[in-house]
Amino acid sequence: MIFTNLKKHSQYKSEVLNEIEDAFQYNEENSFAIDFHQLIKDSNLENCHLLLNDNRELIAHIGVRPVTLHYNDANINVLLLGGIFTKKEFQGQGQFKKLYEYICKLYKDKYSMIILWSDKNDFYQKLGFRQFGLTSVIGEKTVTEEEIIKRGYLKDNIANYSDSQLSQLNELYNQSYKNTISIKRTLNDWRDIKQISSMKLFRNKDNNEYLFFEKGQDLKGIIHEVSFSSNKKELKKFKPLQLLNPSTLDEDSFFIHLAWGKIINEDIFSKFIHKLSKGSIEIKRDELKIETRPYQIDQNEILTILFGPGKAQEIGHLLPSIYITGADSI
Fold it and tell me: What PROSITE patterns does UniProt report for this protein, alphabetically (predicted)?
């Protein structure tokens, strides 16, 4: 077996993209390379990991996007996984697990946890992943451009934005998600977002609010990032549309889980939680201390205990929630 990456073997890139789009049943009009530009861009190819057999045939791929989650002055490095597949002729042989375990060993000294999005519940549970975090859905009605325009927002072309305009969006993003643990974005991150042409930007008439709508095949008919996440007056304009948000609007809102997660470096993760909670929460192996009171825990369940679903009642006031928008998810 050969463990390598697309930076060293870029000749596999077309095959990888074809396999991803086949695995996720992509329509002809959509492109994984566009929808998930941050993952498959040239500068991230060293993080696009391949498993080849001794004949140098492609067996599997796991894409990794390293990011930083932050809240105030607390930061933690995490890995977002995407573009995952094992070629059909090699499935059921444990090949994915080999590549996954290789990646864990490669990154675990600097990265605390892995986050991914999938509907393969049983498969990822066996690997120790758990559904964690909460995302509020404001309504159930599929969004259209006409519905957004009716609410006073006009479509804009982010592809034409200057760095100065992107920096303005970043200020709005930081303000909107300041009460949640969110992905820290740099100007380069916004330049990447600018390349996702399948994601539509809308601005209000005063140009002081924005929203992102859809992302190719991934988020059809959904608003997944807004600059007014805590502005209930503005949010009410979008009821009963499918708008994803860190918090609920009213009793008609409902929660879905944020993602699948697994801790790969307990020390880094524990220090982050200790800092976030201002020393009120300590994690040591199978013990969780909340304001000095000890609880026995299963390490595989810690993310759920801290961030939900079913967040421990004693933790509610000690930790902010996590929110990752569709612009960053892979």
Answer: GNAT
